[in-house]
Amino acid sequence: MDKDSKAATGFAQPLEAEWLDRARAGDRAAQALIYRRYERAVYTLLRRMVDCADTAADLLQDSFLDAYARIHQFRGESPFGYWLRAVAASRALMHLRGQRRFLELFAPEAEVERVPSFDVHQLDLERALAVLPPLPRAVLWLYHVEGYTHAEIAAMNGKTESFSKSQLARAHQKLRELLGVGEPSPATRATPHTPASPPPAAMAVATEY
Amino acid sequence: MNDLSRSLRELPELSPPAGGWARLSQRLDARQGRRRRARWAGGLALAASLLLALPQLPLLRPSASDPAPSRAPARSAVVASLMQQSQALEQELATLKSETGVWNGALASNAASLQRDVALLDLQLSDLAFEPQADQAAAQTLWRHRVRLLEQLVSAHAAPTLTTTTAGLGSDASEAEVLEL
Fold first, then answer.
1. Which chain A residues have a beta carbon less than 8 Å from that of B13?
2. Which domain, by its residues, includes A173?
3. Which residues of chain A does B32 touch, with a Cβ-Cβ cutoff of 8 Å?
4. What is the C-alpha to C-alpha distance for residues B157 and A134, in angstroms, rounded to an integer?
5. What pLDDT score was predicted for residue A190?
6. Which of A70, A125, A189 is nearest residue B11 as measured by Cβ atoms?
7. Which residue of A11, A33, A61 to mutate against B (max B Cβ within 10 Å)?
8. Strand partners, B103
C-alpha cells in the first residue's frame, strides 16, 4: 500500500485555494463541492470507527457542520483533507466517549462468544472489525490506517499515551483471537506513519485540533 | 497480523447514504437563520437597554487607558487582530457549548448575562460599520470589550463544575439547568 492507496481514501485529495476561500466566506456552492469531494472518505473513517451506519451518517453531518464553523482555523499547513479528518475523528471519539456509560466497551470475552460457530480462519477482516469493542476499534483504525501516533490519539481523547496503547493492545488481542493468528513479532509489526501516512505537518495540525 | 496496516487500508471505501448534502444544506440554512434571529434579538435588547441604561454608555467609549493608535492603517491592524481573537474565542466557545449540556444555575445565569452584553456590543459594532466616518478608536474599544466578554464566557463554560451532557444525566440532573446547545 502506498501513497496512491491513501489518495484513494480521499483525504489526500487537494482542495483549490479558491474553493477554500469561498467556503470560508460561506459560499454554499463551495461548501457543497467540499462535501462531495470528501464525504466518502469522512464517512468511511466514521463508519470504521463507530461501526453503525446510521450513527456514522449522523456524525458525517455533524463533522461537516463543525468543519464549516471552524474553517477559518484551517491554516493550510497540511492538506485540507487531513484537517477535515481530524475534525471527523474528534467527532467520532466524542461520540464514543458519550456512549461509554451505556456500552460495555472492554468486554472481549463476551464479544468473542458472539461468533462461536464461526471458523475464524474464514472470518474476513471486515467481520472481525465489526465485533471489536468500539473504542479499541477506533484506536486501531486511527493508528494503523490513518497513521496517528499514540500521542496524537491520546490528545484527541484527552487521555494519556498509555490509554491509546492499551486500547490498541486490546484490539490486537481481539483480532488475533478472531483471525487465529499469532503474536506479531516486533520486527515485523506494522507501524504508523508508513508512506501512506500524511506528512508530519498534517500530524501537527491534527494534534492542535 | 503482521500486515494488519496494509490489510486494513485495503478495505474498500464505504458509500454514505444519498441526500447527505441536501440534509447538510438545510442544517446550514437553519443555523444561519438562528444567527440572524440572534442579531435581531440583540438589537432589540440593545434598544431597550439604551433607554434604561444610558449612563453606562460612556464605559464603552475609548478611555485614556486604551492605547491610541497614531495612524489609520495601524489602527485597522489592531482591530483586525481583535476581530481574529474574537473569532477564535467564538469557535472555542462553540466547542465548549457542544460538549456542555448541564451545569448549575449560577453559572448559567452568569453566562446568559455575558451573552446579553455581547449582543449589545454586536449591535453597536454593526451600527459603527454603517458609519462612513467610523471612529477607529471606538471600534477598537468595542472589539476589545467583546474579546474580554468572550474570554469570560469561555471561562464560564470551561468551569470545573461543569458536567458533560452524558455524564450529567445522573441523580443531580434535576438540580441543574439544561442549556440550549
1. 8-10, 40-41, 44
2. 3-208
3. 26
4. 29
5. 44
6. A125
7. A61
8. B177
Q: Is the complex ipTM higher than 0.85? A: no
Nearest to B4 among A48, A60, A190 (CB): A190
Which three-class secondary structure state does DSSP give residue A190?
coil
Gap between the Cα atoms of B119 and B111, Å rounded = 12
Candidates A41, A172, A190; nearest CB to B3: A190
CATH code at position A186: 1.10.1740.10
**B40, B119 contact by CB (below 8 A):** no
pLDDT at residue A45 above 70? yes
Q: How far is CA A130 from CA A69, A138, A166, A178, in A?
A: 32, 11, 19, 11
Torsion of CA B138, B142, B143, B145, to 10 degrees: 140
Q: What 3-state class would DSSP assign to A27?
A: coil
Question: Is residue B166 located within the same domain as residue B108?
Answer: yes
Would an 8 Å CB–CB cutoff place B1 in contact with chain A?
A: yes
Instruction: Tell me if B95 is assigned to some domain.
Output: yes
Nearest to A61 among B24, B99, B164 (CB): B24
Cell 452584553 maps to which residue?
A: B117
The C-alpha atoms of residue B95 and residue B171 are separated, in whole angstroms, by 26
Domain containing B152 equals: 73-181
Task: Give domain status of residue B154, yes or no.
Answer: yes
The alpha carbon of residue A46 and the mean position of all alpha carbons in its chain are separated, in whole angstroms, by: 6
Q: Please tell me which residue of chain A has the smallest CA distance to B17.
A: A57
pLDDT tens-digit map of A155-206: 888 889 999 999 999 999 998 888 876 554 443 344 444 434 443 333 333 3
Q: What is the pLDDT of residues B82-95, one digit of tens each?
A: 888 888 888 888 87
| Structural domains of chain B, count | 2
SS3 A159: coil
Q: Pick the more confident residue, A140 or B47.
A: A140
Nearest residue in chain A measured CA to CA from B13: A44
